[in-house]
Amino acid sequence: MVHQKTTWYSFLSPMELGGLAAGASELQRYRLRRFATSLGAAFQIQDDVLNLSSDEARYGKETAGDLWEGKHTLILSHVLRSCTDDERRVAIAILAKRRPPSLGLALLPTHLDALAASGDVSPAARRSLAELIDRELLQASYRTQADIDYLSELIRRYRSCDDARRVARTRAARARKSLQSLSSFIPPSVHRDFLEGLVEFVTDRDR
């Protein structure tokens, strides 16, 4: 997913087209592809980290959307390798479920708690509605908010986002090294400055 999606359409293809337009040799284009591959991977891994750790308003996308969708990110791979056998069985069972057709259905229990706390819904009505929602979600085998909370807690406990950040920084360092190997083809210029700044940006960005 990291290599064949984001890396190809946002980094590899533009670099390859730019190299062809500039008359780059096969060796130079190979080095451009190495640069783009490492940079694209660093960008996507950082994006996966932000999906679980960034403020939704600043991030601009649905927080924890990757968990709701069950995407097999580097973060999820790390936590499944790191957790106990019992935790892994629960996590895999959660990932085998489907995303609710409406995320609002899965979030209703949280809204019910707020309504009950404010006195707008009686405790008895809250329990009745919660049981109805739980039955609907369980019968259809949809992920629930409790499922997402469980996965999020595992990720926090095993520091899986920290591991992903480390990998992203490693890939960015590879990209920087690949760019240095292109110094004769891309001499000091505003364009090279932009590429060097891009290497820093992909892992330092917070949205």
Helices and strands, with pairings:
Layout: H1 2-21, H2 26-53, H3 56-59, H4 65-69, H5 74-82, H6 85-95, H7 103-118, H8 123-140, H9 145-157, H10 160-180, H11 190-204
Helix pairs in contact: 1-2, 2-10, 2-11, 5-10, 7-8, 10-11
Task: Please summarize what this structure is.
By secondary structure, this protein is an all-alpha fold. It is 77% helix and 0% strand.
Structure report:
The structure is a single chain. The protein is mainly α. The protein has a single domain, classed as Farnesyl Diphosphate Synthase. The chain is 77% helix and 0% strand. It contains 11 helices and no strands. It has helices spanning 2-21, 26-53, 56-59, 65-69, 74-82, 85-95, 103-118, 123-140, 145-157, 160-180, 190-204. Helix 7 (103-118) runs antiparallel to helix 8. The longest helix is centred in the N-terminal third of the chain and has 28 residues, at 26-53. The chain is elongated. The model has no long low-confidence stretch (mean pLDDT 89).
